[in-house]
Prior knowledge:
Layout: E1 2-10, H1 16-32, E2 37-39, H2 49-53, H3 60-85, E3 88-90, E4 94-98, E5 101-109, E6 115-119, H4 125-131, E7 142-144, E8 147-151, H5 160-168, E9 173-178, H6 183-200, E10 203-211, E11 227-229, E12 241-244, E13 251-256, H7 259-268
Parallel strand pairs: 1-2, 1-10, 2-3, 8-9, 9-10
Antiparallel strand pairs: 1-13, 4-5, 5-6, 7-8, 10-11, 11-12
Amino acid sequence: xxxxxLAWPVxxxxxxxxxxxxxxxxxxxxxxxxxxxxLLPEYACVELGAALTGQSAPDAATExxxxxxxxxxxxxxxxxxxxxxxxxxxxxxxxxxxxxxFVNRAPLIAPDGSLAMQEKRQMTRFETEHWGISAGAxxxxxxxxxxxxxxxxxxxxxxxALVRAQVEAGAWLxxxxxxxxxxxxFNRVRVGAQARAMENQCFVxxxxxxxxxxxxxxxDENHGAAGVYGPIDxxxxxxxxxxxxxxxxxxxxxxxxxPARLEAVRQDGAVRNHRDWPHATVPTAExxxxx
Length: 291
């Protein structure tokens, strides 16, 4: 698989059609670079929120409601881009209504426009305290022409059990769309992604939002770097970095990924983290007794 991870430069966008045009341009560039699958960041489409509210300084709740109202149209535009460019597309996430609550959903869209969803499971403080977004469904895996892959949305990648459930269900690649407003936040995701790649001997790919503008509540400031990470063992870089753009550099990052490399290191690595994952119940730690 040739994967493209997009460090998305956030810009004021007037309407859904404008967002669709930007997404289409990036998809065309990814396709021209030979990408089979394009990964975007969490909440990339929320750059629309400021324009949709019609307010110069909307509050968080107003911005969220505006985004939720147009979520079906945004999703339709995402599907159209995947079809037109004949590319697998993980277009980041969008807040959507689920009955009487809101969830953060990450679609994986096939080139024929069919899709399946992964909901974010673990919420950040901003999502719960300002947007009122609820925890979503448990982890899924997605069938693709290259085998099963998983999606761990931003904060989810910092929790080993969530990603482990996907790996044990056969995922060899974990996509991490992320949206972080500080270097601290991004590095938590990056370190989490590298740890998940190390302990599961799998590939983990990260795509961030970058930049921002004053009129957006959620996307006023964004930092990060697109990156792809793998096992830290034989046949891979000593630091596990497969490919990475410089911090805060927008644009596409391409990486050619082969699941056979993972099977080789799982079988004949210096260590076998994937095999040695502790399946038994972890015992409760008790105080040591000094004598």
